[in-house]
Design brief:
Helix content is about 45%, strand content about 25%. With about 130 residues, the chain is an alpha+beta fold.
Length: about 130
């Protein structure tokens, strides 16, 4: 029984969701992404390198950007990207870019459990004596 729980706990891949948005929209998008069971995010602030002419062509008003890195379960990626894309289209000045990169491994069942928002399965495994 415990072995089945261990397999359940460690099944499913994680991906890094990278979202690039205007700095003033970073908190909004972080909250939105967190609603998909994301427990770990961090933001890096940057400045785009495009000229003002190129920014106008692309419909971007500002080169001050926030790059949001989020760890998300693979099974939630499609829904998250569709939701983010919808917000890019419907929020005023909400333009951005979002894409994912697959992770190949995570060390430790408890780390994976936290990142995958899978703590209930981890608690069940711990009760049965396996961590």
């Amino acid at each position: 029984m415990a072995e089945e729980n261990v397999n359940k706990l460690t099944s499913g891949r994680l991906e890094v969701l990278i979202t690039i948005v205007a700095r003033n929209k970073a908190d909004y998008y972080m909250d939105l992404i967190q609603s998909f069971g994301v427990n770990m995010q961090f933001t890096a602030f940057g400045r785009g390198t495009a000229s003002m002419e190129m920014l106008k062509i692309l419909g971007l008003a500002d080169s001050e950007k926030a790059v949001i890195f989020s760890l998300i379960r693979e099974d939630l990626v499609k829904e998250a990207l569709v939701t983010i894309e919808e917000k890019f289209r419907t929020i005023r000045n909400g333009n951005g870019i979002a894409f994912t990169v697959s992770l190949t491994s995570v060390i430790g069942a408890s780390v994976y459990s936290f990142l995958a928002d899978n703590r209930d399965s981890y608690k069940e495994v711990a009760v049965n004596g396996r961590k």
